[in-house]
Every structure is written in C-alpha cells, then in structure tokens.
Amino acid sequence: MNQNAEYSAVNDAVRGQFFSKVWAMITPYWRSEEKVKAWTLLIAVIVLSLVSVGISVWFNTWYKDFYNALQQKDEAAFWRLILYFCGIAAVAIVGAVYRLYLTQMLTIRWRAWLTEKHFSRWLGHKNYYHLEQGGYTDNPDQRISEDLNSFTSNTLELGIGLLRNIVSLVSFSIILWGVSGSIEVYGFTIPGYMFWCVLVYAVIGSWLTHLIGRRLIGLNNQQQRFEADLRFSMVRIRENAESIALYNGEPNENRRLSSRFSLVWHNFWDIMKVSKRLTFFTAGYGQAAIIFPFMVAAPRYFAGKIELGELMQISSAFGNVQESFSWFISAYQSLAAWRATCDRLLSFRQAMTENEQRPATIDVQNAGAALQVRNLGLDLADGRHLLSNADMTVEEGERVMVSGRSGSGKSTMLRAMGHLWPAGHGSIRLPAARYLFLPQKPYLPIGTLREALSYPQVAETYSEERYAHVLEVCRLPHLLSRLDEPNHWQRMLSPGEQQRLAFARALLFAPQWLYMDEATSAMDEEDEATLYQALIDEIPGLSIVSVGHRSSLKRFHPRHVRIDNGHLVEQPVTA
Length: 575
What we know:
The protein has about 575 residues and is of the alpha/beta class. The protein has helices at about 5, 10-15, 20-30, 35-70, 75-125, 125-135, 140-180, 195-215, 215-240, 240-245, 250-300, 310-325, 325-330, 330-355, 410-415, 450-455, 465-475, 490, 495-510, 525-540, and strands at about 180-185, 190, 365, 370-380, 385-395, 400-405, 425-430, 435-440, 445-450, 485, 515, 545, 560-565, 565-570.
C-alpha cells in the first residue's frame, strides 16, 4: 500500500488544507439538484434544534418558580407548575422526535447523493482498476459504504450540535450573567462572576481533554483500516474456497487471519487505554460540574441574597453554559472518529484525482476502420521493458493470433488496447466499431444466468430464442432451464463452462471486433475448435485479435504475430 497516498489527508491538515478539502466535500450536495429539499430539511432541523434550546430556557425559568414554591410551601403553585411542566415536556418530546426523524431523513438523502457520486467516480476513468493495481488506496468498498455513512451522519450531528450549543451558550450566558450577581476579590468587583467561573472551568477542561485524547484520531483511522483488511481477507477465503480446500491451506489461512486480527486487537487495545484515561477525566469533569455551581453560589444563598429558586436556576443555567462551553470535551471521541473518516475519504478522493490527472503515456483512441499500433512500448512498474517500438496493422476482417513466451507482454498489449495499461509510450488506434474483450477469466455478475449472459447489457436486450440458440451452439444446453435462476455463477460453473459462457456472450453481442486473451485456456481442443468456428460462422466479417499459445489455435488465424525479445515479429503461416 502506498502510505504517502493513504496519509496525504493527514499531511494536508498540517499544511492547513484539511478543512478546506472537507468543505469542498461537503458543499456540492447543498448546491446540487437536491438543494431545495436539502435546505428545507436542514432549516427544519435547525429550527427544531433552536426550539429545543428555547425549551431548555423555558425549563430554567420553571426551575426558579418550582423551587420557590417548594420553599414557600405554596401547594396551589406547586400543582399548577406540575401541570405547566407536563405541557413543556409534551412540546419537548414532539420536538425531539421530529428533530431526530428529519435529521435521519436528511442524512440518508445526503448519503444517497454522495454514494451515487462516488460510485460514478470510482467506476469512471477505470479508477476501480488502477487504484487496485497500483495499491494507491485500501478497501474502497468500505470507504464508499461505511465511511460515507459515518461522514454524513457525524457531520450533521456535530454541525447541528455545535450550532445548538452556540445558541444555548448565548441564551444561558445572558441568564447566568443576570442571576449570578457580582463578587469582590481582593478589592476588585467581578460582575457576572459565575459566567467567568464556568468559562475558566471549561477552557481548562477542553485543553486537558485534547491533551489526553489526541491519539484517538490516528488510532481510529488505523482501526477502520485494520477491520476492513480483516473483512477483505475473509472474503478472499470465500472467493477461493475450493482452491484453499484442495491445497489443505486452512492452517496457512488461519495464520493469515490471526495476523490480521492481531493488528485489530492491538490497535483496539491502544484505543481502550486512551479511552480509559479520557473517560476517567471526562467523567470526573462531569461529576465535578454538578456540585461546582452550588459551591460558588452557596455564599450568596447562605447570606440570604438569593432564594432556593434562584440557586437552582443558577445551577441549571451554569450547567447549560458549562455543557455548551464543554461541547468539545463531550464530543471529542465523535470528533476523533469524524476526523479519521474524513482522512480516509480525502485520501481515497485524492487517489482518484491523481489517477484521473495522470497523463496518458500511451495514446489510445477509437478512430478509423483498422487497428493500428505505432511505436508502442510497454513498461512494468519496476521500469523493465516488455515491448519496444512495436508496429502492427490489422485490417477489417482479419484474424490475428499473438503468441510469445509467458511474461513476454502478450496480455499486457491487450490491456493497453483496453485503456488499462498506463506505463509505456506510443499510440493505438482502435477501430471505431462495435467491439468486445474476452479475458481469460470471464466476469459473471451475481444474479440470474440470463443477466450473466447478456452482460454488460441488460437481460431484456435479447429474446428467449436467441439465448437458447447461443447456449446450444456453445455446448451449454443443460443451462437453458436455469436462465432465470439467481446464483453465484462464477462459483457454480467450471472454468471451461465459464469460458464457453463468455463465447455465448460474444455471440449474443455480435461485435465487429473481438479481442481475446487466452479465452480458451480452460477448454479442451474439441470445444475450442467448435467455439472458434461458431464465431466465424455466426458473425460474418468478424475481426479477431487473439492472445494464445496453443498451436491448435493457428488454423483459425490466417496471420500470426509473435512477441520475441521485446519486439513484434511477423510469423510465416504454414499450411
């Protein structure tokens, strides 16, 4: 894995770019085609959040009247205030329910929009392929599914929570300033002294919280990556279950999984230790905040300057101001998790941007009627040359076989034609005609067999008769009754059946140009001959470029080209 790419977002933060990049990730949704609904929901959630602050102020006033009624033993006022409380509570409950409901609605809409955009971008420019091949980023599936979910929910929760706390801070600071009075210290009169007490209390608490818990950001980032790596390793076992079982590779896989889990375990243990220290402090800080306002207000109460109701109002207002000032403390673990999520998403997006902006060293375009390869050079990632200054022209209707020793660059040249190989130079002009690539290992999507056959087109593209015909031609008549059966066909079918299914797909698609990479390697020679002949008979004028090594393929290709010592060499055709 490329660690520089993985932690580029962290380095950006040091350079002061973190928030600007996160802002660039947040804002597009609010200017998109969904902006009216998005802003309507956001405003509704903000209004309900502010209403909740107003209800808290309402309760604060109620505390004063209620405790004064208790002190004065005013039974009529007591029962009136109980009914009054029920009314306030009913409004608070309705507001809380709809605030949660609308916040969740906004979260899922924002997540859906971001997910679709990331799907499109990940699949565009072949990002899903190049990022996997180059090792630029790990577990893109987790970043799109889990990280986007966490990002939207945490951003809304933290953003609206911060706004609510700011409004609450202003509201209760005014109340606290008004009811706390002044105090003399060494001859100096300090007005609203309770406000200054809570400010000092919260600032010291916030600074100590960050000091204790700052390691959580990096640890959370690592934990997400280690968990995703463990899940990916288990998925690999599922995908290769038969091979592992035949190799009796269970002990080896057990060691690999244990090694992966060891990283999860040790990192989580570090999170536990930091969280324990942080919780010790925050829990103690929260408990001290309960009695602290009584301690600093007690002298005025015992001096008879305020009644019990005012004392309780001061305690309530102090608690709200302290909670608002201490938002950073209470939200620290959520902020650490949010920061880790943002780092992962930013590094993922940065990797896609770098891939999209990487200049194409091999010029591949669709133009003309013939396949033209000019001055083509192919390089490996370590700098070694596979092919140098290759020139080749394949005219419409020709069938060409490309052969060579293993590792000579045959398949790599086909990848370059498919816009998949970035390292090299030269130009490739693909015919501007209907074409199809058949790789050695066909991709069969999970779903019905009809969908696997018609891929990349939709199943409704072809008639029932057409499906039946191509299955019969490709020696797969036993699958006709299973066309509408959903299954994991890549596991169900043998490698030879999968390759015959790929030929059936080619017959359905009926391309004008067909590029094949060892597409019959799992077949016997009889099936191979039958299917090649079917292509020639069923698609008149079909142009074929085949990568292969079997001599049995030569009779289906009037022209042979071999890669030898890094050069394309025309081979004489023997009768």
